[in-house]
């Protein structure tokens, strides 16, 4: 179970995550991840995937950017939340570094997620089902 108090004025919901390349057993990286209920799949920037030495696979997927449709690859990566819950799965490798880590509905829907506003903070709660 994960309970965090976040600044209410923030326009983005960002949580710390630990990323691991478990097959290689080499690289770990802690980064703030955008908790994005509008994303079907979780994703990493191409730059971060390279740093983590993830094995990229072409699976014939495409993503619509602001100006064009671009091919995207996938890779297996482990996400660990601050409370210790881990999720090892395929993630999209995003061609941009604007948001290096996105936690999408593939992870979010595995648990119960809620936000409760109070004064200047948001109480964030996530619990595996």
SSE order and pairing:
Layout: E1 2-7, E2 14-20, E3 28-35, E4 43-45, H1 46-51, E5 57-64, E6 69-80, E7 86-94, E8 101-103, H2 105-108, E9 111-118, E10 121-128
Parallel strand pairs: 3-8, 4-7
Antiparallel strand pairs: 1-10, 2-3, 2-6, 4-8, 5-6, 6-7, 9-10
Keywords:
3-stranded antiparallel beta sheet; 129 residues; mainly beta; globular; 8% helix
Give the structure's gist in a few sentences.
It is built from two helices and ten strands.
Notes on the protein architecture:
- By secondary structure, the chain is mainly β.
- Helix content is 8%, strand content 56%.
- The chain has two helices and ten strands.
- It has helices at 46-51, 105-108, and strands at residues 2-7, 14-20, 28-35, 43-45, 57-64, 69-80, 86-94, 101-103, 111-118, 121-128.
- A six-stranded mixed barrel has the order 2-3-8-4-7-6. A three-stranded antiparallel beta sheet has the order 1-10-9, with no helix packed on it.
- The longest helix is centred in the middle third of the chain and has 6 residues, at 46-51.
- The chain is globular and about 45 Å long.
- The mean pLDDT is 89.
